[in-house]
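REQUEST FORM: STRUCTURE PREDICTION
Request ID: SP-0412
Submitted by: Lab K.M.
Chain count: 1
Length (residues): 454
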Amino acid sequence: MQRIWAEQVLTAAGWRKNCAITIGDDGRIAEIAADTTPTSGGYGCLIAAPVNAHSHAFQRAMAGLSEGRGPNPQDSFWTWRKLMYRFLDHLDPDQVQAIAAYTQMEMLEAGYATNVEFHYLHHGPGGTPYANLSELSERIVAAGLETGIGLTLLPVLYQYGGCDRRELEGGQRRFGNDPDRFAQLFDGATTAMRQGPADWTTGAAPHSLRAVSPEGMTASVSLAPDGPLHMHLAEQLAEVEEVAAALGARPVEWVLDNLRPDGRWNFVHCTQMLPHETKGLARSGAQAVLCPITEASLGDGIFDGVNWLRHGGALAIGSDSNIRISLSEELRQLDHSQRLRDHSRAALATPGRSTGRRLLDAAATGGAMSAGRETGPLDVGQWADIVALDLTDPDMTGLTEDKILDTFIFARDDRLITDVWTAGRHMVSGGRHVHRDRITASYRQAIAGLRNNL
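STATUS: Completed
RESULT:
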C-alpha cells in the first residue's frame, strides 16, 4: 500500500484540500480522504495523469529532421510522408525497441500515464515478414516492460496504397498485411501483451478508409470484440477527396452511415469536417483523438473543438509523430488554434470551468475511453494514474484549484511535473524517469548514424 498526500487534489468529485490517496497493492486507488494530517514528503498538487491516445513511437527518432524544404514548391503532409518511408528503410528491431522505450519515458515525464501505440510497423525493410510475425509488436511490449508505462497496443491493419487498392510501395511495404496474415500477427501481439501488468490492454486499428477495404475493416475489428477501436479519419483535404470519389461519400459521412460508431470507436485527427459531420460524429458517442502539435506540424488543419464539445463530443489527446512530447503544449496548442480561428479568447472554457480544467477533464475522461482503461478523473477503484505538480514554482504562488491548471498549461510547462504514477507504479520522481540514464544510453546508441539517412 502507498499513501500519497498533497495540499490540493483534483478528484472526480472536485477539488479537495489536505488530501491523502491510498493506492492498493493491485495498483488501484483504494481510498481518497480529504482534510487529513500532512505526511513527510507530501506534494503540492495531484491531478489525474491522462492517456497519450495516439502515438507512432518510431517517428520520435525523426524529430527535428523534416523541417527543410525539398524541390517541391509546396511542401505538405504527402512530401513528409515520403521522407518518413525513406527513414523506415533503415530501422531494425533493436532500434525500434530503443526508440519506443525512449518515447515512452518522455511520455511519462510529460505527465502521461499510458501509451496508446497505433502500431503499423510490422515487417522488415522491403516488406519481408520477420520469422516471428509479431516481432515488432513484441519490441513495443519489451519497451513497455522497461519503462513501466501503461500500454494499450493497437496492431494496425494496412492493406493498400489508396482507395483504388493499389499495391504498397517503398517504406509502406513494412506495414502491409492481408486480413488472414494480420489475424496471425494480432494473435502473437495479444500473447506478448500477457507478459505485461494487469492494466495493459489490446485493441484493433484499421488504418484508414484509404488503406483498408470495408471487408478488411470488418475482419480487423472482429479481432478485438471488447477492446478499443482506432482509425485515422478526415486528416487531409486530398484524403477527403479521394475517399469521396471512391466511396461516394466524405469520410465522416461514410463512417456514420456504415460503421454506426459508438463509444469504442476513436477517430484520429478529424481536422477536415463540415459542421454537420462534426455534429453527427460528436453525437454518435465516438471519440475524436487529437494531436495538435503534429496536426500543426503537418498542416492538417484545425479541429472544430468548440462545436465538438458543444454537441457533447468526447476527446482525447495524443502525440502522434512525437515531434514534441508535451502534455501541456498539446492542450495549449488545441485551445490556441480555436482562438486564432474564431478571433476569441478562452474558447473552450465554460461559465463553471476554466479552460485548463475543461481541457484536462476532457483528456482524462476521453483518454480512458481511448485506451479501454479503467482510469480517468481520480476516483476509488480506478487505476492510480497520478501526476504531481510543483506548487513551489514562483508562478504558482498563492494559486488554488483551477488556476493551478490554467497556469500549468498557459504560463508554465511540463517542468512543473515532479512525479508520475501509472497504475500505482512510481515511474517519475523529481522530474526524471527512474531508469532515464539507461534508457537514454540505449536510445543514443540506437540512433547513432541513423538520423543521417534523412
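NOTES: The mean pLDDT is 95.
Reviewed by: T.R.
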